[in-house]
Amino acid sequence: MRWDVFAWAAFALILFAAEAIAPGAFMLWLGFAAVAVFLAVLLLPLEVPLLAQVAAFIALSFVSIQVYRKWFGSRERQSDQPALNRRTAALIGRVVLLDRAIVDGRGRVQIADAYWEVTGPELPEGARVRIIGGDAMTLQVEAG
Question: Measured between alpha carbons, how far is 136 from 56 in angstroms, rounded to an integer?
Answer without folding.
Answer: 50
